[in-house]
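Exercise 7b. Backbone tokens:
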């Protein structure tokens, strides 16, 4: 009997920095782990909030596609900001990738892993 949870990994995504999957597929949903502004080698992007936001959204897209889903199937997003003052600039980029306006929460986190200033996790239909 196979597991009801399928781990997702793509070499085109950011490698996990801990003992977890880039995403898991279960019960008709894809649960995407926190995506950061880094390349597929795990190197952080140094740049503006706009540049980081684009990279995060692109990273989420490749992981979702590896799971057989896509950005258009996202139903819930959580954004973690090191500085909530970045909210407006991030939203301008976010709106380009999510015109269907999925449910979303945003919060300022005191500290994010690996020196990140932004992180985004998602839930999508499989």
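Sequence design result:
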């Amino acid at each position: 009997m196979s597991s009801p949870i399928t781990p997702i990994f793509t070499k085109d995504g950011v490698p996990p920095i801990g003992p977890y999957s880039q995403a898991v597929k279960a019960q008709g949903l894809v649960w995407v782990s926190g995506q950061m502004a880094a390349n597929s080698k795990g190197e952080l992007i140094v740049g503006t909030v706009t540049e980081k936001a684009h990279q995060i959204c692109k990273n989420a897209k490749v992981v979702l596609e590896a799971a057989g889903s896509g950005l258009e199937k996202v139903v819930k997003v959580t954004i973690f900001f090191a500085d909530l003052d970045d909210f407006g600039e991030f939203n301008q980029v976010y709106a380009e990738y999510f015109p269907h306006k999925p449910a979303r929460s945003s919060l300022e986190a005191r500290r994010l892993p690996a020196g990140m200033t932004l992180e985004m996790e998602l839930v999508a239909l499989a």
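Instructor comment: Residues 49-66 form the longest helix (18 residues). The first strand starts at residue 5 and ends at 8.
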